[in-house]
Amino acid sequence: MAPRHLERHAVHRIGWLRAAVLGANDGIVSTASLLVGVAAAAQGRSEVLLAGVAGLVAGAFSMAAGEYVSVSSQADTESADLARERAELVAQPAVEREELANIYAARGVELELARKVADQLMAKDALGAHARDELGISEVTTARPIQAALTSALTFSAGAALPVLAAMLAPQRLVVATVSVAAIVLLAVLGAIGARTGRSSVWRAIVRVTFWGALALAATAGVGALFGVAA
Question: How far apart are CA 215 and CA 220, in angstroms?
Fold first, then answer.
């Protein structure tokens, strides 16, 4: 008996992984940048922490709302396309069968064989076959608004809480440096975790997230220092 060939793919994680990485990354970058900007303006610890907590709460709700609205728009579009496809399958099944066969033929399958494949797939699940191969909609990639909203809100809150904690524990004169270093380290860890979960390049992910995070921190520190001096 031949051994079973087991393959483990990560594509089924795309929906929640994208929302999780986006939420945690935004939580770290936006909250740490806010803390650094306020601290660089020579504000006291209470003002810095208040800004951080306010940013955490506002950001979590903003991420949830933004993800829900955007992914709901995707879901609405998918539903509309599926409704049109369902109607076309009822009105002109022969045309839809030929359309599906031509898709397979364009991928390299002989036309007669492609027609047989189209016939068999449509006999089992016509809408599913057209959704997958004509529209690019599958169970893996379908939009899930609530999942995206909750994932983003939770991971944003988790990511934002860590720079706030760093600011709380750091000596007053070292808040900017401590939060900046903590944010860069956290972003590197996040990039590595996201890459490992998605089974992609770890170092590429680390460089990508830390570069943009450092840029945001530098920009807000500069703005805070400028307005602090101006005041």
Answer: 9
